[in-house]
Amino acid sequence: MSTIDQLEKEAKQNVSKQLLTLLQRSDQLEKVNQYKQRIIRKKISVETTLKTAMQSQLDGVISGIQELKTVLEDMQTIKENIHEMKNSLQVLPPLGLKLSDLRAQNNRHVQYVTAIENLTHVFAVPDSVERTKQWISEGKLLHAHQSLMDLEKSRDELMYETHKLSGQSMADKLLLQDYFSDVEKVSQLLEKQIKLILSRTLLTVRKEPTVIVTALRIIEREEHLDQMCMQKKQQSNYMPIGRPKQWRKMAMAVLEESVSQKIEGTQVDEKGSNKMWLVMYLELIRQLILEDLRVVTTLCGPCFPPHYNIVTSFMRMYHDCLSIHLEEMATSLEGNEIVSMLTWAVNTYPGPDMMSNPELGANATPLGPVLKEEVIKELENKYFKYIQENYVDWMRKTLETEKEDWKSCSPPDSDGEGHYHTAAPVIIFQMIDQNLQLTKDISQELTERILLLSVEHVTEYGKMSKDALKELKVEHFKDRSKMVYFTHFMIAMLNNCLKFVELAHQMKQTFWKRSELHRSDASNKFEALLKVFEELRNDSAQYLLEEAFLDLLPHFQDLMTAKWLTSTVSIQTICMTLDDYFQDYCHLVGKNLEFIILEAEELVVTRYIASMLQKKVIFKNYEERKAAAEKIVKETKQLKNLFSKYTTNIDAPLDCILALSEVLKNEDSEMLSLDLHTLLNKYPDISDDHISRLLTLRGDLSRQEIRDIVLYVQKTKANRRFSYSKSLFHKIP
Fold first, then answer.
1. Is the domain of 128 the same as that of 191?
2. Cα separation values, 255 from 258, 318, 355, Å
3. Cβ atoms of 111 and 161 closer than 8 Å
4. Count of beta carbons in the 10 Å neighbourhood of residue 230
5. What is residue 728's DSSP assignment?
6. Which segments cross the bilayer (predicted)?
7. Shared-domain flag, residues 69 and 117
8. What is the pLDDT of residues 283-338, one digit of tens each?
9. Is a pLDDT exceeding 80 seen at residue 188?
10. What is the pTM of this model?
11. Nearest CA to 254 among 303, 299, 212, 208?
12. What is the CATH classification number for the domain harbouring 427?
């Protein structure tokens, strides 16, 4: 089936589908004529469009064929013309050979013409040289340069003609060079004068900007002549004497040298005579550079050609020269001078007070840092070492001052609420805060290093304090009359420990970044600091209470004796003595006061129970045992009343004594096991020896009965699970 037949078939199928769509209802048959007319109109429109398109295509093809015919005719004409030109040029090579003599005569004629034209200048060279020198000395640089260009032109043209003559002797060239030697001297003299002007650019441009413009015009002329000479060399291999002068390069070098001299020439007080010399110097440099760059932006910009990019160029010069100068200075810096340098280089220099000043209208970012990364790292390491050495010295001196205060004849300072303290925590953390505040604006990495170093040395200070405090305690208890304020300084030490921890947390919150907190080494070091001061607090509390309990030792020894059964002196003395010491303990900060009271309570309970279990008395009958148990309960209430004056959490330790008294006053030995079960449930760490001695104290049990009860308790422990938490019994021998 042909393509036309296929298209016709598809058309019929499409028409059938359209008819089915149009004639779906019976009422649509009435509109058949309308549908027919619509389709006829559409067909006519399509046929018209098709005819128009076909006609347009045919017109285009006819036009293209006509153009191709014209091109073919033109190509034939060009081919014929090229053939004619080729035939005409064949006669030229022989003609060139015939005219060689004429060419030589022409060259000779050109040389003669050049010589005649320059003859006047040649004879006037000495006068022109002197006149040019005079103009230079008078500052008439444009006249001087025009005269110099005329002299150089005469010399260079004669030298060029000599260069073209292959047979010319070297003596003739040397003769010309010698004759025009003063011209080169004049050029050097003018160059020297321009250098002098450019070296004073920032001063001259404020008063006589035309002088700068004149010098720059001369430089640009010379640059143009340099380019012409370079092009001529490519053609003839001849370069005039003294070319290229490269005065633009010279000008930039002079400007850079003037910048370097200005920076190096800026001086302040000697290092030894003024500790703030570096700060003053850097501020002076900042003001100097900022003022110079303002002049460059406002005055030099209009004077210099645009392609000099003079503002950017000057910024680069100041940046490079200052960078070199600061790097040289950095090698001799020490201590806080390093921080001053780093802070200035990292913050002040690139900031709005200097290179990013809006008045400059330029972006200093492409210049980069004024100190190289390796120089900054070297300074940071040097400062870190300095701080490390200072920390060792500061901590040692602070501890020495503390030790002197401990042995002084005056009490420690107190705050507005009467809490004793010494200056050590504040002094140490003020030093640390100052160091961290300084480094915070320099580098986060350096700040973190100093922070960890600070934590390490505060921890070390805590360890040294522990050793010093232990020595102080030993010395004090040898002769308690020497150190009058031992108790007061132990209280101050307890408060100091709390202050150290508080300031450490403040430091952590202020300077530690979130990412730093998750580093195991940093966290471990901080935890070590907290642990050291917790141990120091515990030691201080132990020494503080040890002094009090030394006074109470005889009275604890009187407990549970025959004398104790009929006397209240011991417990009253214990309560009064403790109350007296607790009055001093009120100078403790709230947390420490509660801590020391609870520690004292535990000591009282352990000493009391230890006295009960020392077998100093054995009751003969139930009445004595009951009376003793009631006395123990009464004394326990007295102790509770004492401790309740200073803290609310007092029941747990003292309840140990009451639990033991219940075992004592139990009349029925058969019910004794129940009391022991209760005791074991409350205090699972009570030992068999404790139980044995407690039962012995009753006086109504034989040794075999006691062994049987203890054996029964052992079996009970083995069969039951007791809480692992320790009570006071693990502290009782």
1. yes
2. 5, 10, 19
3. yes
4. 12
5. G
6. none
7. no
8. 898 999 889 888 988 888 888 998 888 888 888 999 999 899 988 888 888 888 88
9. yes
10. 0.71
11. 212
12. 1.10.357.50
